[in-house]
Design a protein that fits this description.
By secondary structure, the chain is mainly alpha-helical. The chain is 54% helix and 5% strand.
């Protein structure tokens, strides 16, 4: 339900021709990423592209099968 609401906000803002659709899209993506990988707020905030790597057991996900956030290592 939260993810549907976040997606709806993205579509609502972009459909109205207002600024802010990119921020709404970013927030929706961040909610889904945090939930999928079980990230904490600090880990989510410090997330970077280099924190993702392939998973040998799930090649279907390509280069984003494993998430090892830098926030967890500090």
């Amino acid at each position: 339900m939260l993810f549907d609401y976040a997606d709806d906000q993205d579509h609502r803002v972009s459909g109205a021709g207002r600024k802010g659709w990119l921020s709404a899209f970013r927030d929706a993506t961040l909610f889904k990423t945090a939930h999928a990988y079980g990230l904490r707020r600090r880990e989510d905030r410090m997330l970077d592209l280099v924190d993702f790597s392939p998973n040998a057991h799930a090649p279907i996900f390509g280069g984003f099968g494993v998430c090892s956030p830098a926030g967890a290592r500090r």
